[in-house]
Design a protein that fits this description.
The chain is built from 12 helices and no strands. It is an all-alpha fold. It has one domain (3-233): Heme oxygenase-like (Heme Oxygenase, Chain A), CATH 1.20.910.10.
């Protein structure tokens, strides 16, 4: 698998990271009383432990340059010391807090079956499958969007970035703008951060490792779609 074939294989996976129910979340069609389900599952599946997931890629990686990139990501996620000012998992909890939800619920979340399968898939692919697969799953898939191609092709549609006042949680559910600190932090570093993640993969994953890395990304996508199906159903949405 050539470098270009590898990039295209990864981009094809990311282009498919779209779910039929997401427009209902971004247009305010999900009842606010059920929105906590989405936030709780996201938090318990990967947000709370995201620094740990990055750390798994770090400890398996023998390449100093890559470790430095992962270490910076890990430090920011765990402490917020470079940009956000607080650990990112803590800033995520500002969303439910600002919406008036009981944040104590987030301490002991019961995962939906699809959510558990997705987390089990993440764990299986990040614990002992090597740094390349772990980094791809964590820094490309989990952190990435369907708009990754725009990083390489100026004609591809970029990731939408509405004004903070038009953020779906603010516009449709009344979330105070000060509760969007995590969103602001992500936006401040997103472009550089995404390019760095892709550079690591394209410059350092060995040719022999590339097919298995794309396969792992495809496996993660399938688990993610199943997870989002379960969240949509729990939020009262019906697939067309």
């Amino acid at each position: 698998m050539t470098r270009d074939e590898f990039k295209d294989g990864l981009l094809q996976v990311m282009t498919q990271k779209e779910h039929w129910a997401w427009p209902a979340f971004t247009s305010g069609k999900v009842e606010k009383a059920r929105l906590h389900v989405h936030l709780e599952q996201e938090y318990a599946v990967f947000v709370r432990d995201f620094p740990v997931l990055v750390g798994r890629a770090f400890v398996q990686c023998p390449i100093p340059e890559v470790r430095r990139e992962l270490a910076e990501n890990l430090y920011e996620e765990e402490t917020g010391g470079l940009h956000a000012g607080k650990p990112h998992p803590e800033l995520f909890l500002e969303y439910p807090k600002g919406l008036g939800f009981d944040v104590r619920r987030f301490a002991d979340v019961i995962l939906l079956p699809g959510a558990k399968h997705y987390r089990d898939t993440i764990d299986a692919l990040t614990i002992s499958r090597g740094w390349a697969i772990a980094a791809a799953v964590v820094t490309l898939f989990i952190e990435g969007t369907p708009h990754e191609r725009s990083l390489f092709d100026p004609k591809a549609p970029p990731r939408p970035e509405p004004a903070l006042g038009d953020h779906p949680l603010a516009k449709h559910y009344g979330l105070p703008l000060e509760s969007l600190a995590l969103t602001k932090a992500h936006r401040g570093v997103e472009g550089e951060h995404r390019l760095s993640a892709w550079k690591v993969m394209l410059d350092h994953v060995l040719e022999v490792e590339r097919p298995a890395t794309v396969d792992a990304m495809q496996q993660t996508l399938r688990a993610w779609l199943r997870y989002r199906d379960d969240v949509a159903e729990a939020c009262g949405l019906v697939k067309p």
